[in-house]
């Protein structure tokens, strides 16, 4: 790698760190909490609920299909 690329990456990382620290300091000054807002949190929880429900349904369907395949592939007498 070129030394200038390494220096440029190091400077970019340092500046982004400084900007993040400044944003956090301003948020603390203003009394704003750093966590997500309640609408965002509730929307994320809703999506997680839908995702878990669809995963449970998919697992049940997979079990049913696996049972059917096991019966159809079993040797007949």
Characterize the main sheet: none
Number of helices: 2
Give, in order, the helices and strands: HH
Q: If you average the pLDDT, what whole number results?
A: 84
Helix content: over 70%
Number of strands: 0
Structural domains: how many: 2
The chain-level structural class is: mainly alpha
Overall 3D form: elongated
What are its keywords?
mainly alpha; 77 residues; elongated
What's the topology here?
Blueprint: H1 3-30, H2 38-73
What does this structure look like?
The protein has 77 residues and is an all-alpha fold. The protein folds into two domains: 1-35; 36-77. Helices cover 83% and strands 0% of the residues. The protein has two helices and no strands. The protein has helices spanning 3-30, 38-73. The longest helix is centred in the C-terminal third of the chain and has 36 residues, at 38-73. The mean pLDDT is 84.
Quick recap of the structure?
By secondary structure, this protein is mostly helical.
């Amino acid at each position: 790698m070129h030394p200038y690329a390494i220096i440029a990456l190091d400077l970019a990382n340092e500046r982004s760190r400084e900007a993040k620290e400044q944003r956090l300091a301003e948020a603390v000054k203003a009394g704003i909490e750093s966590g997500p807002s309640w609408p965002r949190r509730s929307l994320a929880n809703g999506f997680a609920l839908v995702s878990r429900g669809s995963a449970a349904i998919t697992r049940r369907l997979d079990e049913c299909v696996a049972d059917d395949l096991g019966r159809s592939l079993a040797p007949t007498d």
